[in-house]
Amino acid sequence: MQRHPSGRLPRYWRLPTFLLFIIVAPMTFDTSEIRGQDPPGTHPDVSVLLITYNHEAFVGRSLDSVLMQQGTRFEIVVSEDHSTDRTLDIVREKLAGRPGARIIASHENLGSNETILRAIRAARGRYVSILDGDDFWIADDKLARQVAILDADPALSACFHNALIVRGEAPTPTEERWTPARQAERTGVAELWEGNPFATCAGMLRRSALTSVGDWYATLGRPTHTPMITDWPLYLAAAEHGPIRFVDEAVGAYRLHDGGCFSSLPRRDKLDATARVYEIMRSGLGKRHQPVAAAGAARYFDGWATAYGAQGDKALARAAAWHALKSGGVGAGVGWRSWLRGLARSL
């Protein structure tokens, strides 16, 4: 999703999955792991969910950054989506002999959030950390730091640190941080409905806070002709159980690619796709979200209407204003007078 004028960005991700099988080291099939049941004597603190598709050039480094983690017990669940390169081979080589490491591999490419949902359902840890196969961690105590934060404050549903941005295929990150320094220390549901300020690779969520993430989440992507926004809906689901803590220290590296499936869309198509994502999330997360969701969506699109108006693009400003109105949040999230002034400037 394009970056909002406020700096927020619901991140999309291109993945897939339909028919799947689980390969458990050493490559055996166990239906208990499909259901996510805890085998006797196994109690990881964290389930690291590595989501990957066609990441041959990056996934080895991503896994190395997981394997270097110290100070907490963790399991690794890889969800691989029928890559056409050597991604799956590299994953198998890296995890050979790793106790408890599991690979969930697709028989065909899905292009939907099912790849993340199945990994969440297979997780056994108290906490979940998601890492895309082209990103990596730069701190060997990333998991331990976040476990300590969540253990110390049971009211929190999740915590996030910051991430450095890696441009394209560059081997090292820049000094640019993904989350703006002005980000509040605690973020709630209302703020998250205006957009997602966090990088996937920099977070940890309570698994118990993801109970409302169901089949609706898996439809994001190819099934509904929407961008694969994988993380934002998860944070919204978690935040209904408690606030999200932010610490402005970089622990991960987020790779920013040019020409992604969403970033390459025309700007009007992005607005329309974002509106569809809002509709799916509002439907999936239930009625109690509707007032704050409508207000957040109205502020999101009204912000773009203002930005496009300032750029002199009246057609896009009108489209954004229309989406703000359709959200049902004008009058709550955005005042009617403010909205009407913005609409007048777009005519």
What is the residue-averaged pLDDT? Answer: 87
Q: Give helix and strand order, one letter per element, not per position.
A: EHEHEHEHEEHEEHEHHEHHHH
Task: Identify the CATH homologous superfamily of the largest domain.
Answer: Spore Coat Polysaccharide Biosynthesis Protein SpsA, Chain A
Low-confidence stretches: 9-40
CATH topology of the largest domain: Spore Coat Polysaccharide Biosynthesis Protein SpsA, Chain A
Which of globular, elongated, flat, extended, rod-shaped describes the shape? globular
How many domains?
Answer: 2
Q: Radius of gyration from the CA trace?
A: 20 Å
For the biggest sheet, the summary is: 10 strands, mixed
Count of separate DSSP helical elements: 12
Report, as a whole number of angstroms, the end-to-end distance.
26 Å
Helical percentage: 25-40%
**Which structural class is indicated by helix and strand composition?**
alpha/beta
List how many beta strands DSSP finds: 10
Strand content: 15-25%
CATH class of the largest domain: Alpha Beta
Write the CATH architecture name of the largest domain: Alpha-Beta Complex
